[in-house]
Amino acid sequence: MLASVPMRLLPADQNGCLRGDTVETAIKADLAKGLIPCYLVATHGTTATCAFDKLEEIGPVCQRYDIWLHLDAAYAGVAMICPELRQHMPGIHHADSIVTNLHKWLLVNFDCTAMWFKSCRDIVEAFTVERIYLSHKPKSEAPDLRNWQIPLGRRFRALKIWFTLRTYGLTGLQQHIRNHISLAQEFEQLILADPRFELATPTCMGLVCFRAKGDNKLSSAILEELNKRKKVYLIPGKLGDSVFIRFVLTSPTTTTE
């Protein structure tokens, strides 16, 4: 909650995706109550299952009602450096702002987040604070980044991004992403070949969601035992009433072996 503005959670479809009709129904309901919908956060690769909200449906709805559309692409956003993966991004041009965490999957150490705005002017006009104790001379032609955010300063994260880009280059970073997707597909085949397990959701990017056939207790017990062995660290997920195990690749040292 920011500035005492309440937040409303919207239901996803059976695949974990937010749809345009759901958004429009919620907007109309809020307007009928005298509320003013002004901001919507869609997700590009949800935490639990790496599902993608339908931006091609949501975007036009937000435009009709003059609502700021923010895209949370914390995990999957960096994968868009690979042209073949941009099929997951229809409608992204509707987003007013996009955020992705470079420390999650692009080899930059924690913490490091990149954010893009369709119009930087909107942000500067909202956050600019002019006080006499903040004035300085001579004024540079460079943008004053304190006016791009709520706090007046932040840590210098740009250098580690620069070193990562210079060290790996575009080709190296693309290979890093593609290697993890290949390993995820390899792990998926191991799950499909074992009659004791099943996929909980379709494999997407570097994430494989699987579970033991049977009730949730069995999957939870297997997860606990695997983590006790300390050879791999896995965490649980839940979609509907189904509990599953999340296998996600992010480390550059992970191999088939």
TrEMBL record:
One Gene Ontology term, aspect cellular component: cytoplasm
Coiled-coil region list: none
PROSITE patterns to which the protein is assigned, alphabetical: DDC_GAD_HDC_YDC (PS00392)
Gene3D superfamilies in the cross-refs: Aspartate Aminotransferase, domain 1, Type I PLP-dependent aspartate aminotransferase-like (Major domain)
Keywords per UniProt: Lyase, Pyridoxal phosphate
InterPro entries cross-referenced by the UniProt entry: Aromatic_deC, PyrdxlP-dep_de-COase, PyrdxlP-dep_Trfase, PyrdxlP-dep_Trfase_major, PyrdxlP-dep_Trfase_small, Pyridoxal-P_BS
GO biological process, one term: carboxylic acid metabolic process
Cofactor(s) required for function per UniProt: pyridoxal 5'-phosphate
N6-(pyridoxal phosphate)lysine carried by residues: 104
A GO MF term: pyridoxal phosphate binding
Pfam annotation, one family: Pyridoxal_deC
Similarity comment: family membership: Belongs to the group II decarboxylase family.
Protein name per Swiss-Prot or TrEMBL: Aromatic-L-amino-acid decarboxylase
